[in-house]
Amino acid sequence: MYSIAQLQDLINKQIAEKKYPQHPSDLYEPIRYIMSLGGKRLRPALLLMACDLFEGSVLKAIEPAVGIEVFHNFTLLHDDIMDKAPLRRGKATVHEKWNDSIAILSGDVMLVKAYELIMKVEDSILRKVLQIFNETATGVCEGQQIDMNFEAIDNVSVAEYLHMIRLKTAVLLGGSLKIGALIGHASEGDADNLYQFGESLGLAFQLQDDILDVFGDPEKFGKQVGGDILANKKTFLLIKALELAENLEEEELHYWINAENPDPQAKVAAVTDLYNRLGVRQLAEEQMNSFAEKALSALEKISASSDKKQALRKFAEELLVREN
């Protein structure tokens, strides 16, 4: 069984060697640029791990794995336009470096290139693989739209939030694993269980991200904490706080949500204090742990050797034991 680091190196090498046409340069250079910005390559690595789990050759799965990464970066490119984000991984975003129109068109080509790579599987599984990819890609777009809709909605339930992050984040982990399993000639049942493992893991990961954004150590977390609070982003923590707050705490929470140009440090400190008083961090951690347990339970059902599954178990633990 390959380690996650070995598979990430393999993917990075494949991406670095990928050739795109030289002309028109404004169409293809942005693709080369965004793909060179790095990232953890977790989704393609999971695809390769799933293939390897069932004795499949990772070399047969490398191009579909890169296809998943191209698709992921396509969504990031378009998300950055929608968010008007100036930076991606510490570098200028494509729409900042070029312009919105070029970024949109380059993103469109990335989606086509992702399909070209995903299709490089055996004919016997091509229809199934494309069906999984289509459902996954549609889900990611639906999740993004729902997340944007939340900005204009006052009352979002926990169930609605979990549905959104399942689509926006978790289904791509599940889809990557299921495609890798099929390339490795897994049974339909094993492929479905791997999908469930990935989806549940993705939900746990996003909930942990919500927690770390408020309570994490910025030096270890890798970004400034409190960003979600300043943006009034509807995370599990805020939704649960709005649900539980009463009387003075409810009034205080709505004050900070509706305050115009508040002092950033004061707002983060005040809302964090409210979260502590309402106990929403513990509730978020309980929900996160529930999804983590579901992921590991699905992994246990897969008919592969315990040694092989250990690599995925270790991956899950590393993903969910980030510094705070």
Salient structural properties:
324 residues, mainly alpha
In total, the number of strands is 2
CATH structural fold name of the largest domain: Farnesyl Diphosphate Synthase
Radius of gyration: 21 Å
The average pLDDT score comes to: 94
What is the spatial order of strands in the main beta sheet? 1-2
| Beta-strand percent range | under 5%
CATH superfamily of the largest domain: Farnesyl Diphosphate Synthase
In total, how many domains does the architecture comprise?
Answer: 2
Q: What is the N-to-C order of secondary-structure elements (H for helix, E for strand)?
A: HHHHEEHHHHHHHHHHHH
Class by SSE composition? mainly alpha
Per CATH, the class of the largest domain reads Mainly Alpha
Q: For the terminal residues, how far apart are their CA atoms?
A: 30 Å
Plain-language structure description:
It is built from 16 helices and two strands. By secondary structure, the chain is mostly helical. The chain folds into two domains: 137 residues, Farnesyl Diphosphate Synthase (Orthogonal Bundle), CATH 1.10.600; 138 residues, Farnesyl Diphosphate Synthase, CATH 1.10.600.10. It has a two-stranded antiparallel sheet. A hairpin with a 2-residue loop joins strand 1 and strand 2. The mean pLDDT is 94.
Structure described in brief:
This protein has 324 residues and is mostly helical. The chain is 77% helix and 1% strand. Strands 1-2 form a two-stranded antiparallel ribbon.
Secondary structure layout plus pairing:
Blueprint: H1 4-17, H2 25-35, H3 42-53, H4 58-83, E1 87-88, E2 91-92, H5 94-97, H6 100-118, H7 123-150, H8 158-183, H9 188-215, H10 218-221, H11 227-230, H12 236-244, H13 247-258, H14 264-278, H15 280-300, H16 306-320
Helix pairs in contact: 1-3, 1-4, 2-6, 3-4, 3-8, 3-16, 4-6, 4-8, 7-8, 8-9, 9-15, 12-15, 13-14, 15-16
